[in-house]
Amino acid sequence: MEQNIIETDILIIGGGTAGCLAAVEVRERFPNLSVTIMEKAHIDRSGCLAGGMNAINAYLNPGETPESFVKYVRFDSCGLIREDLVLSMSKLFEYCVKKVEKWGLPILCDEKGNYIPRGRWNIKINGESLKPIIAKAAKNAGTKVLNWVVATNYLVVDGKVGGAVGVSIRNGNLFIVKAKATIIATGGAAGIYKPNNAHDAQHKTWYCPYNTGAGFAMGIRAGAEMTSFEMRYIGLRVKDTIAPTGTIALGVGAPQINSKGEKFMATKYAHIGGDGAPTPYRSHGPIQEIKEGRGPVYLDTRHITSQQARDLKSAFLDMYPSMVLYWAANEIDPSKEPVEVQTTEPYIVGGHTQSGYWIDVNRKTTLDGLYAAGDVSGGAPYKFVSGCWAEGVIAAMNAGEYAQKNEFMEIPADIIEEEQNRVFAPLLSFTNKKDGIRPYDMEVRLQKIMEEYAGGAATFYEVSEERLHVAKRRLSTLPDQFKHLIAEELHELMKAHEVIDRVYVAQTLVEHMLYRKETRWPGYCTRTDYTERDDEQWLKFVNSRRDVVTGNIEVFTRPYEQIVPGDRYKPR
Amino acid sequence: MPVVVHADKCNTCHGSHNPPCVRMCPGDLLMKDPKTGKILMRDPAECWDCLPCVKVCPQEAIEFRLSYQLGFHTARLLPHIHDTRDFITWELIDTEGAIDNFTIRTKVLPVELDEKIEGVAAVDFSI
């Protein structure tokens, strides 16, 4: 094992959707600044976009404005969002989409050359190669890319971030990257809860299973303020494949029906928009139907033509090819029978929901020198791909300004030595033939605790004070067990750190769910002891900060500010 | 068994140290067999079924399979990138052997058969 010490003006951790756009933006606006991306896989196909995308889901179609977007997102998130963040990102959708189109992304246009809308906020793309296209732009901009380097912790002195440490899973070197400013863009966290499928399909998840909350955990360990972890994302997805349903529901206008053929969203949730109800309700509705014995639940596609069914398959091939194979392998024709749906394991993300770093409008976190963008940053749901791009751009502009004014920090040697010992401990334990815990075993243990006591699918995602306290107590033992982790080789070492990171995320998550004593987002976090929404007490953000010395997690609230006038529970 | 590598089709990308399929896996799951240089799947249970490795293989030696719990044998889905790289044809074969082709516009970027790794000496990842 050797140390690679690198100095770069700007370090971007995570070369995905947000990180690649951030890299290009820094190089365009500040050509004098050097940029390095630290990426756990290879930026050509890493992260959420590896398989591709068939739509840009956050775009202002003709007639829409940043304000109308904020109104819709606020409605969709049950009245509580950071309006400053959502406004600022929506103003950049056009800029980002045009930029990526220029890099070569095929966007579907009509005969006049206008983008083809799919609903108010979506446009269709042929995005099978979206990830390599934006990765190429990042590389062409002169970014240094450290592929296969897994970020493990920030370099922090006096609450200020001066870069990060990572481990190469190709040669086991420790990478010490000193930076004047750091942008965290590692995505959210999957694998906190028991996955929907077992055995050789355990990673058949909707969210990228390799996004394991590294950025959240690094922030939690460094004492950064986090927000809204309790707004878990539980998506309505196609049964078994966990494929996105927007392609079907929006693409061909398919309502949800239960096993009796009842359009339950249209009847029971008419007052909040029926099949157009806020996203959490579109998961809550079917969960209730199944809980009360009226499952399975379907998207009714029986009205579509065989040509529409073909178009549907084409759309999935651009993003989620296994959906098409699934239909062929099970002799399912979506134009003849309805498509069965289910809800996912809970994910912690800042791009569909709003869990993540508490940031200001410049995407600066509560730690000096650290900016956040994409799924790892909180307060701004409904980001999807283009919102992550926009946040990458905003973070880049402000991190660039910061780097112009600041110098490299002196990093005491003991910080690096301590991290080095922490990072390699599982490998050393294996070499010393110590008996121990394999990362996969700890992962299953974590998932079992979360599934059974912290609102997993088996309990219809419901939580209560008592059950959450059991989860909290059981989780509290896990950090003491990290010293028993063993890893045979570098891939398993990465997995050891993935599960360590997820434990930090899970502990913070449980504290957040305990603190919010209302049910603001039914389905996402249904409290059986506080079943109603309570705007008087809880129209505010639940935030947390872990004490870097004691390890205690302090939970508190931050006020909500309404910027765009109007009824917060109306989509327009 | 989400991804199957057909060893008879894998030509090791002519002895590449860091072949495209290894680079394209976001989960670090494909590796070279230390004996033959051909590609091995580290752990099928970790596969996300995202298919970049399948699409990038110049030999079409990597095939995607649904886990059997999710779909019956022997349905297949085989992507073929056109030489012009602006279209991809997906060949879908159902359990009865009936074939359906879907041709979709794309923009596939050219990929080198080998690539250096920043900060890592070739000796560390070659076999």
Share in helix of chain A: 25-40%
CATH topology of chain B: Alpha-Beta Plaits
How many beta-strand elements of chain A?
19
Q: Biggest interface and which pair forms it?
A: A-B, 63 and 53 residues
Largest sheet data of chain A: 7 strands, mixed
Task: Give the arrangement of secondary structure elements.
The complex is a heterodimer of chains A (572) and B (127).
Chain A: E1 3-13, H1 17-29, E2 35-38, E3 53-56, H2 66-76, H3 83-90, H4 93-102, E4 123-127, H5 130-140, E5 144-146, E6 149-157, E7 160-168, E8 174-184, H6 214-222, E9 226-227, E10 236-238, H7 246-252, E11 256-257, H8 264-268, H9 279-291, E12 297-299, H10 306-317, H11 322-329, E13 339-343, E14 356-357, E15 370-372, H12 384-405, H13 413-431, H14 439-453, E16 462-463, H15 465-481, H16 490-515, E17 526-527, H17 535-538, E18 540-546, E19 553-559
Parallel strand pairs in A: 1-2, 1-8, 2-5, 8-15, 16-17
Antiparallel strand pairs in A: 3-4, 6-7, 7-8, 9-14, 9-18, 10-13, 11-12, 12-13, 18-19
Chain B: E1 3-5, H1 20-24, E2 30-32, E3 39-41, H2 52-56, E4 62-64, E5 76-81, E6 87-93, E7 99-105, H3 122-125
Can you describe what's shown?
- The complex is a heterodimer of chains A (572) and B (127).
- Chain A has helices spanning 17-29, 66-76, 83-90, 93-102, 130-140, 214-222, 246-252, 264-268, 279-291, 306-317, 322-329, 384-405, 413-431, 439-453, 465-481, 490-515, 535-538, and strands spanning 3-13, 35-38, 53-56, 123-127, 144-146, 149-157, 160-168, 174-184, 226-227, 236-238, 256-257, 297-299, 339-343, 356-357, 370-372, 462-463, 526-527, 540-546, 553-559.
- Chain A is an alpha/beta fold and 572 residues long.
- Among the domains of chain A are: 236-343, Flavocytochrome C3, Chain A, domain 1, CATH 3.90.700.10; 416-542, Up-down Bundle (Methane Monooxygenase Hydroxylase, Chain G, domain 1), CATH 1.20.58.100.
- In chain A, the strands form 5 sheets. In chain A, strands 1, 2, 5, 6, 7, 8 and 15 form a 7-stranded mixed sheet that branches. In chain A, strands 14-9-18-19 form a 4-stranded antiparallel sheet.
- In chain A, helix 14 (439-453) packs parallel to helix 16 and helix 15 (465-481) runs antiparallel to helix 16.
- The longest helix of chain A is centred in the C-terminal third of the chain and has 26 residues, at 490-515.
- The termini of chain A are far apart.
- The model of chain A has no long low-confidence stretch (mean pLDDT 97).
- Chain B has a single domain, classed as 2-Layer Sandwich (Alpha-Beta Plaits), CATH 3.30.70.20.
- In chain B, strand 5 (76-81) and strand 6 form a beta hairpin.
- Chain B is built from 3 helices and 7 strands; from the N terminus they run βαββαββββα.
- In chain B, 11% of the residues lie in helices and 25% in strands.
- Chain B is α+β, with helices and mostly antiparallel strands.
- Chain B has a 3-stranded antiparallel sheet with strand order 5-6-7, with no helix packed on it. Chain B has a two-stranded antiparallel sheet with strand order 1-4. Chain B has a two-stranded antiparallel sheet with strand order 2-3.
- At the A-B interface, helix 5, strand 5, helix 10 and helix 11 of A face strand 5, strand 6 and strand 7 of B.
